[in-house]
Amino acid sequence: MKAQVFRGVNQLSYEELPIPTLETDEVLVKIHVVGLCQSDIKKIRYPLYEPPRIFGHETAGVIAAVGEQVTGWEVGQRVVVMHHIPCMRCGYCLNDNFSMCDVYKNISTTAGFTPSGGGFAEYVKVPGHIVRNGGLIPIPAGVSFEQASFVEPTNCCLKAVKKAQIAPGQKVLVTGAGPIGLMFVMLVKYFGAKAIATDLLPSRIEKALSVGAEAAFDARDPDLLTKVQALTDGIGVDTTLLAVPSEKAFFQALDCTRKGGKILFFAEFPDEVKIPINPNILYRREIDLIGSYSSSYRLQSLAVDIVFNRRIDVEALISDRYPLENLSLAVEQAIAPSPDTYKILIYPQAAE
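Predicted structure:
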């Protein structure tokens, strides 16, 4: 099979590898589409993991083989593959901190080498723990592989929305109108709140409006605070979702978020970034700072319902499609997006 192997920082190698062999409790999936995620790009661009590895985790495809002990799954079934499933027994899981679970972090799908998602390949192997515990999701008729590949990123965004306790009638500032920010806009609207989006690109400002934002502004607008206050009865938004790793965006969030409101960090900042803050701002204004990382097992069925029943229009987020052999070009485009770049999908079977 063909795979894109991470061989070092900014080094992707399009290689021929053996198809993974199965243990008796494992499943092999032929990948039809995999989304390119910002976390994939981070892993490729920075020295975070020892090579060689095969990344990619927003995966949908067809079961190609099943181990002899596997029950309930058959060759030919269309499935979404979740690359992590928590143990449900540790102290983290018992407190719903599933993404902190050691099993969640260390048992993953693989196309070879150290298990790292494995979606950037023609085939991926699903470990028994993931097969047995809800990590394969059947794709119903009428739902495309492209749509299905959004289940995992939708779960991640949904977790943040739920963690911030976004409720009907609230006003929510979404900083950044890239693929994640736009999905936040859609989910905020779906749950009955009103989104105000910011971005630097005029096309993304327009896109945010087209997918449901009540208002959208240039993040550099000197009158941004005044405009946000005009939309929020002069008190500021209830919650800000930081979808870009920007220090300026954080301080805008502090200005625009009302007393007693919440600021949620979703985008991962570079480790060298330090944000100085007077703790009395949080104390006196009762601002909650929250972090949200990865997906929540408890929200998996809701994410599936939202995507499969088209409660948000995930297809509106797709801007570009690349064959697997051109993954490096896709990464370059994501790093330096054109005005119309949003979600990029990768197609491993294009090599056939």
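Summary: The radius of gyration is 20 Å.
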